[in-house]
Amino acid sequence: MADVPCVVCNSIQTDRLFQTHDRHYGITGDFEVVRCVHCGLVRMNPLPSLEELAKFYAEDYYAYRPLVRNTALRSFAKKLFRTTITTHNPVFRAPGTFLDVGCGSGEYLHFMKSKGWQVRGVEPSAFGAGQAQREGLEVAHGSLHDAHFPDSAFDYVRSNHSFEHVHNPAEVLAEIHRILKPGGKLFIGIPNTESVPYRVFGKYWWYLGIPLHTFSYGTSNIEVLLRRFGFQIERIYYQSNYSSILGSIQIYLNRNTTRRSTEGWVIRNPILKMLANLLARFFDLARRGDAIEVIALKPR
Question: What is the pTM of this model?
Answer without folding.
Answer: 0.90
